Amino acid sequence: MSFFYNGISLNKYCKEQGLNYNSIRRKIINMTSQKEVEDTINACIEAGPKKPKPSYKVDGLTLRKYTLLHGYVYPTMRTYVQEIRKKYPNKSDNEIALLAVKHYEENHIFKELWFYKGERLIDYCKRNNLTYQSILSYLQHMDIKDSKNIPEEAMELAIKKYYIKIRKDSFEKLKFCHEEEEFKEISNLLNIDWDSVKLVMSFNFDYLRAIYFVWYFGKEKEGFIKLDKRRIETVYHCLKKVDLLEINFLLGYYYAGIYDTKQLIYNKLFFSVRKIVTDLVKIYEIKFNSDYHEELNAEANMLIFDFINRTNSRYLGQIISYMNAYIKGCLKRKIIRDLSEQEKDSLNKMAYRNSNKEVIDTIAMKPIIDTSYFSDDMIKIIKSLDKIEQRYIILKFKELYEDEEIANLLGISLEQVLELREKTLEKLRQDENIKLLKKLQ
Question: Could you identify which of 106, 225, 284, 375 might form a hypothetical disulfide with 218, taking C-beta atoms 3.0 to 4.6 angstroms apart as the criterion?
């Protein structure tokens, strides 16, 4: 429907007068009285052109982009902008933005309480392409006594959780992708080589299954996960001995839709999960019904199938570690639920909770049960190494991280990781027990 005013179209008139045509049109679109239409238009004209929305920029970037780039909290920054705008109404948008950034830095950054190896945490995060707020959040949930000297173990764990969260979120987003560009963007976040994805798709895979295929069966080269036709042929050839494969490869077949390996995964995990559940039940005196064994089996079954649908790690060690941590988390929540239920019948709720708090805290902090892949002899050997060398051995040979991932976790370059590898293995070569060394290599 077209509207006219003073003999010309309303759209043209609004352009000439600097008025918002769409705003006026929305107000009059359902009006039937010509007089009502004219009165509304006249009222809008008298009110005059609306002031354009403020455009706050810093260093050529919008304020939102600037805050995201520097790891600042945008809602807090906007609050400062509003306060400064009221205080200095005559200043330009960009001047206000600069004042807000300065105020934010003075109150949130320059008064930084968190330091890692003598460097401000926010600067460390910027230098290593980490999101400051995420890393800080993970550290704040740890028992760190001196925030000005963050322990290496704490930072390593925070970074590990950070990348797990990115990976988890990326795979979750994959389920809702429809366009090629969306799938390509997620692949880049996961460091999956897009040419490898397209290669797999030439074998009649859709985007989702092709990405899973490369993720589980590809190899890291030059910072990306890649594969070639020969690798694809090997994946199909291994179907002949699929029951002998490790869990990470079975997950690959399952998620890529090549072969339904869910039962095989279940069979490999059941006794391990059952043992962990049994140990936790005994140690922490978790109460089950009278039919103890049947309920334990049911609990193990539920945890396994739920775990299969949640995990997305490529490496066996990480999958086992995540499985154990996941089981501990589930049982911890069960205890908390039981405490809540029992508190309802307790006359002294606070005393009851305090008496059981130690049990909950112990589950949260106790090392994961049944993840000892090193023998007693090997543990004695690696104790001769310094802390960073020990962490390298654990990450590389126990949790099966690639060198690029270890570089990210330790906060060092790939070249330094390779030097660390040579230095560590050279120390181990000098050990008397050469047989254990061969297992490492």
Answer: 225
For the entire predicted model, the pTM comes to: 0.57
Mean pLDDT of the chain: 78
- Which of 113-127, 301-315, 346-360 is predicted least confidently? 346-360
The long-range contacts involving 366-371, CB below 8 angstroms and separated by at least 24 positions, are 368/321, 368/324, 368/325, 368/328, 369/276, 369/279, 369/280, 369/324, 369/328, 370/272, 370/275, 370/276, 370/279, 370/324, 371/320, 371/321, 371/324
Q: Output the pLDDT for position 211.
A: 95
- Distances 149 to 122, 128, 300, 328 between C-alpha atoms, Å: 14, 18, 41, 30
Residue written as token pair 């080589």:
193
* Predicted confidence (pLDDT) at residue 74 exceeds the cutoff of 60: yes
Q: Is the pLDDT of residue 195 over 90?
A: yes
- The pLDDT value recorded for residue 440 is 43
The domain spans of the chain are 4-47, 57-166, 177-255, 262-365, 376-440
User: Above pLDDT 90, what percent of the chain?
Assistant: 17
Contact 266, 236 (CB under 8 A): no
The end-to-end CA distance of the chain, in Å, is 77
pLDDT at 367: 38
User: Does residue 372 have a pLDDT over 80?
Assistant: no
Written as one string, the DSSP assignment of 26-83 is HHHTT---HHHHHHHHHHHHHH-SPPPPP--EETTEEHHHHHHHHT--HHHHHHHHHH
Please tell me the distance from the alpha carbon of residue 162 to that of residue 129, in angstroms, as a whole number. Answer: 11
**Higher local confidence (pLDDT), 352 or 14:** 14
Task: Spell out the SS3 assignment of 259-274.
Answer: CCCHHHHHHHHHHHHH
Query: How many Cβ atoms from other residues are within 10 Å of residue 253's Cβ?
Result: 25
Is residue 388 within 8 Å of residue 410, measured between CB atoms?
yes
Tokens 């154990």 — which residue? 324
Nearest alpha-carbon partner for 192 in 312, 323, 309, 306: 312
226 and 217 in contact (C-beta within 8 Å)? Answer: no
CA-to-CA distance for 319 and 165, rounded, in angstroms? 15
- Calculate mean pLDDT across residues 257-264: 91
- pLDDT score at 184: 94
Determine the topology of domain 376-440 in CATH.
Arc Repressor Mutant, subunit A (1.10.10)
Residues β-bridged to residue 57:
62
Residue 94 CA to residue 18 CA, distance in Å, equals 24
